[in-house]
Amino acid sequence: MAVKAALLLAAATWVCLSAAAASAFEFEDVPTVAFDERFSPLFGDGNLVRSSDDRSVRLLLDRRSGSGFISSDYYLHGFFSASIKLPKDYTAGVVVAFYLSNGDVYEKTHDELDFEFLGSRWGGQWRVQTNVYGNGSTSHGREERYLLPFDPTLEAHRYSVLWAPTHIIFYIDDTPIREVIRHPDMGGDFPAKPMAVYATIWDGSAWATEGGKYKVNYKYAPFASEFSDLAVVGPRADPVLRFPRRAGAGADQDLLGLMTADYAVMTPQKRAAMRAFRARQMTYTVCYDAVRYASGPFPECDNSDEERENFSAWGESKTVVMRPRARGRRRGRKAGAGAGAKGRTGVASS
Q1: Which of 22, 28, 218, 262 has a beta carbon 3.0–4.6 Å from 269's, enabling a disulfide?
Q2: Candidate list 112, 144, 226, 300, residue with the active-site label
Q3: Is the pLDDT of residue 150 over 60?
Q4: Residue 112 falls in the annotated catalytic set
Q5: Active-site residue 26, yes or no?
């Protein structure tokens, strides 16, 4: 009863704070950890390279293997974050992922929250995909894809997931890009079991770039992704019993602290920034995909007829498209024209 009361109080507090004016949102307030404090190697052996101070990790993909790491504990809700620098040059077929999952414990009823980065033929023009699975709902995942407004191969950017009992927020740097509010009709589709934190790089040639048309080209290997500023804020939990390891008043306090933290509160200013990002960068959303989901949008989707006009029937944006920039000079162009275009993302927006 105490946990339920704390959840109701936290939810009410979240609603009230969401309607209030925003204070500055800064990730500097989130403590980071050394790799050995919260993580362990998952696979890849020599393709996982830890820094001398143990504050960052390089994940490599070559002909022999990809690589990855996993958190040492499972968590029931929390805030999970990493600064990631993606591989440069030709990266078609390469997939870098930062995600939460309990698939190792619940093979057929697993939960998952994803950041998946999909490589490209054009240098820095990576795409990022987010997804939400609950209780094994892989047959109707909640994908969204976006272009990035920067070249993610030049420097690290922070990618974060807030997972609360009432809502989920995906962030890029300090900008929220997606909010999933728990709707009663979602049922078991909302992730509700303890999950571990993963980071991986692997060969996704079968699907990652234009549906598998372009494969990983290992003459550009090794592909290196760098993870730093690792942050894990949340109650550790038993994945089978599904309860926080800290019980009673301590668990209530942890939940209330999470729900009232800046990164858990969607203020009007942050929601406006999110909508602006989505209007400029989102290339696909499941909420407007009437081909795969003919029965209608998912219950948590906040659709509008005006916005729907910007999307095709299969959920692809009509206004945000990837346009590869010219690489090198074209005949008849002046020297220097288009300089700096290599590796940059071209976005056409209405």
Answers
A1: 22
A2: 112
A3: yes
A4: yes
A5: no
Options 26, 28, 37, 116, the catalytic residue: 116
What the chain holds in terms of domains, given with CATH numbers, is: 2-276 (2.60.120.200)
- Across 63-74, average pLDDT: 98
Give residues with Cβ within 8 angstroms of 219, minimum separation 6: none
Q: How sure is the predictor about 98, in pLDDT bands with cuts at 50, 70 and 90?
A: very high
- Enumerate the H helices of the chain as residue ranges: 2-18, 35-38, 249-259, 268-281, 305-308
DSSP-based three-state secondary structure for 236? strand
Token duo for residue 39:
């993580």
Q: How far is CA 106 from the centre of its chain?
A: 21
CB half-sphere exposure, 33, CA atoms < 13 A: 13
37-49 pLDDT per residue, tens: 999 999 999 999 9
Which range, of 138-142, 177-181, 200-204, averages the lowest pLDDT? Answer: 138-142
Residue 81 and residue 26 in contact, taking contact as beta carbons nearer than 8 Å: no
How is 74-134 classified by DSSP, letter by letter?
EESSEEEEEEEE---S--TTEEEEEEEE-TTT-SSS--EEEEEEE--SSTT--EEEEEEE-
Q: Name 118's bridge partners.
A: 95, 127
Eight-class DSSP state of 316: E
pLDDT band at 17 (very low <50, low <70, confident <90, very high): very low
